[in-house]
Design a protein that fits this description.
Chains A, B, C, D: It catalyses: 3-hydroxy-2-methylpropanoate + NAD(+) = 2-methyl-3-oxopropanoate + NADH + H(+). The structure is a homotetramer of 295-residue chains. Chain A has helices at 13-22, 34-42, 51-55, 68-76, 99-111, 124-130, 141-152, 166-194, 199-207, 214-218, 241-257, 263-280, 289-292, and strands at 3-7, 26-30, 46-47, 60-63, 90-93, 115-118, 121-122, 133-138, 155-162. With 295 residues, chain A is α/β, with parallel strands linked by helices. Chains in contact: A-B, A-C, A-D, B-C, B-D, C-D.
């Protein structure tokens, strides 16, 4: 069993840290919200007043933070953990951030002999609780192999995407594609309904034809076609439009940096931004089908 | 066994008629190309000098023609088959055409007590030969039930999409969605590669994540990732960009008629038209990934 | 002064016929609405019970109808005017319709020695009343020269766009571009406002820079920047979103027919369709800026 | 006459500094390329070994650098000019950079009582040489009024866009709109040509109609329609596709930051990136019309 520090105990990080505890690891936790810390402590975690205190004995440091600036500030800021983490330790950052920050942070940590993998997740809060997340990992093979057993305590599919930053790239590519699948599926279903077809019949036909995709399989955007999906719960729960819009923003940054052309992804980004701007930011992203429905 | 007339023996119609013969039906065939007719006759079909002669004893008339104007001209033109087909017979039109023509033709035929279903297919030439096509059928339930056993001799999945024209609508919705899936997948893969990821690794990750779709499953657009797909054969064979562009044109017509908004499908239509216009019209439609690759 | 028949006395056709009367021509009018006819008769026009009666002495026949099917039905239907118009006469069709119908109708009329130009207009109801319309004319030079003095009684700019159908093509190209200008200008202004800029200041800067375009010059979509434009009248009056959507539908048809790629125009078509579908169809098309404003 | 330091003597900065000298100012120049410095010195400028030396007596510091990181590094880096510029001086940064960097740099400078305006330009190398640039200025009114007479020595239109960063926002809004105008105009012209219209005739019609915009007025993308524009010089000279793509990247960043939806601008960004990726990055941006022309 390993000695792990876990930083960032939000909707995702909290249950992830819980699963590490359940697997028998020694976990020192830190978060700015005392309630979040208290919950984990009640489950057996230790904590400390300062984050620097939490990491000083850790072999693994796992972080789950909102944005690149937080990751940069935590590790390499003036009073960054770079000055406290033991050489030879492995930082596993599961935040969804830009590749540029990954390269900057991992390079500086390497100068102090601290190892790093980026390991963003997919699977949502449900996956975090159930321990069925997917991890897309960027870093060298040795570090990936070291991280893998730890990640398997929190997730089901652990992918090695490539070198530093590749985990982030894989995640933005996947989520950009997901946005394309969802908006494309939504407008195809609505086009069919506008022309007299039944949503369930058309869904079934496309699911068994070349239009088949993840959204038709497990996340149909039309209310009533599937049970236990956000569309059948007034688009509550699931993956918020605002979060999809955030990931699409990262995808656009990535494409601008590499001077890539992603017209479909860019249009999807703007459709989800439009949908969020019309007041649907906190609804599940499958609610985009409502945009295509004529009033 | 039924008495069937089959009109239109092209790349699709020829093997479809063959499969009807193999199932033991009596088939009278017609096409403007004598070679196409001769091949089917050698397999046991009958024929006649005039198409009107072919249909006079038929219980079922199957047609497979290039465009709506041909279907309209064949059935309800001045010397149309409407004057020769026996009342009570069933016309099964498998051409991919616009819903408006379906309504016009089926309505006029109904006046002479001739039944009609639209039954466009997906599955390509390979599916036509193997008898594994999917049929999307529009028409009333009784006619669908009558058509089904005949269609099962040529295909595997027989869907009842709804009333007259619904088969065509289902097909354009599915193919519009397929175009979205392919162009979206292509640009996501290229974005990953532009940022250092391996196409096969990224394909594998997205296939097991929420980016999963038919193109990643069976039709990967990156050369070398899958065997026996067009991308691994220099984009030869498969579904030509020009044919995808034609289907997307029908989807745009459908959307304009119903005043529907299909931004993703419309962009895909224009990307495939651009790709065709740059000289790739006769290449498989998965070759669109080449458009996103920087020179 | 000429002997003119005028068919179609709607919002546009009525004032156009009025202007011909004011110029001193003899005008025989026809419309299905008796009130529309009565108004023109009170201004000096003649009429008849049947449209065929109205055209029998005419040297010029001007028509202004809603769609291609009406034009086709009027001139070449079973009881079409083709059987009544004097050989050597000139038909000036000002309806906005598809090029295909223009070619079909003009070709059939030519067989009876009846000349034809397509002459769609821009300038709206205001332009029709003021006699300041623009006409985009398709047809041969001789017919254009014959039509020009008549058109000058109803408009200000008379363009010879090319052969039959070219007037329609010019109009859909212009209106597709206008839709692009308006949606692009709207989102640029909203982006500026979202980042703290004043709409009037930004409008002024772009008007004097390379972003200058017709919408910034005379039709600013932001309320309060200009007087006497629809945006300063709650988007009433002006050019209805539904009509722009109709013209964009024709543009899409044109692009599909010629297999042209028009990604910007296609996206504009879908944005205006979306805007209409959200209940803004009868508002001026500049109201699209409301779509980009976050709630 | 003022004491001015000018930093960054590239294609734009060089001629701008020249024009300040011609207006009679004392100008101390700095650049990493000795040749660029030597040219200005031969025209009367002074220089120094270190950039910190150049600015110590300056009332105005003008900078023209490639990207935000250069501006940040110059002014507020460890050895930044913030430590050398006299309190009360005014920094005029004419680089095209992101609003975030403007806010960061101007805020830090303000702490040392150094004033700042962002003043990006449009008008290109030709405008820099002729002294006819447009400046879009962000900052407070007093600083704008102070900067204005200096800027008038280098440009013709000096706009006050708003507070710090507003100059940058105005520029990206304008250039995003320009990209929309150019791509929209290009595809409208090509659609017309694909349907038999002459580019010059259609340009003329749209120029006098509601499709009128800056590109049709002074920068027609069709070869031969206008003299002395890049399209009539094989798309050499002018505004490179790569530079337009860079500005569109900044526009996308801006839109992502403010969560704005700019579908037309985003599509234009991706079309220009596609065009650059197909080998046209160093051609004028009006060459995008070649993308729409079928081979």
């Amino acid at each position: 069993m390993a000695n792990i520090a876990f930083i960032g105990l939000g909707n995702m990080g909290g249950p992830m840290a819980s699963n590490l505890l359940k697997s028998g690891h020694q976990v020192a936790v830190f978060d700015l919200f005392p309630e979040a810390v208290a919950k984990l402590v009640s489950e057996g975690a230790s904590t400390a007043d300062k984050v620097s205190e939490c990491v000083k004995d850790a072999e693994f440091i796992v972080s789950m933070l909102p944005a690149g600036k937080h990751v940069e500030g935590l590790y390499i800021g003036d009073d960054g953990l770079i000055n406290y983490i033991k050489p030879g330790s492995l930082v596993i950052d599961s935040s969804t951030i830009d590749k540029g920050t990954v390269i900057k942070v991992s390079t500086e940590l390497a100068n102090k002999d601290i190892n790093f993998v980026d390991a963003p997740v997919s699977g949502g809060v449900g996956g975090a609780q159930a321990g069925t997340l997917s991890f897309m990992v960027g870093g060298n093979v040795a570090d990936f192999n070291l991280a893998k057993p730890i990640l398997e305590n929190m997730g089901k599919n652990i992918f090695h995407a490539g070198s530093h930053g590749a985990g982030q790239v894989a995640k933005v590519c996947n989520n950009m594609l997901l946005a394309v699948l969802m908006s494309g599926t939504a407008e195809a279903l609505q086009l069919g309904m506008d022309n007299g077809l039944d949503a369930e019949v058309l869904s079934d036909i496309m699911l068994q034809s070349s239009g088949r995709n993840w959204t038709l399989e497990v996340y149909n955007p039309c209310p009533g076609v599937m049970e236990n999906v956000p569309s059948s719960n007034d688009y509550n729960g699931g993956f918020m439009t605002n979060l999809m819009a955030k990931d699409l923003g990262l995808a656009m940054d990535t494409a601008v940096q590499s001077q890539s052309s992603t017209p479909m992804g860019a249009l999807a980004r703007n459709l989800f931004a439009l949908h969020a701007g019309q007041g649907n930011g906190s609804k599940d992203f499958s609610s985009i089908i409502k945009m295509f429905k004529k009033t």
